[in-house]
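pasting for the record
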Amino acid sequence: MGASVGLLLGGLICWLQTTYGLVGMGLENAVVANYPVKMEAFDFLLVAALIVIVTLLISFRPASLASKSYSVTDL
């Protein structure tokens, strides 16, 4: 759930920056007035895949320790 909300908020912030230019460069003679942002679907898919991979890697050790601490005969 947190990953989905984070991806949606990230997309919303990028869209707002592209549309309304929330964060400016702070220079009067800059070529562009606002920081440029380019959203690509591949970036969102890559972040989602990395979230899944990191979550699986981080949860593997606690799950393996928990499976060793209980057995069917203990219940």
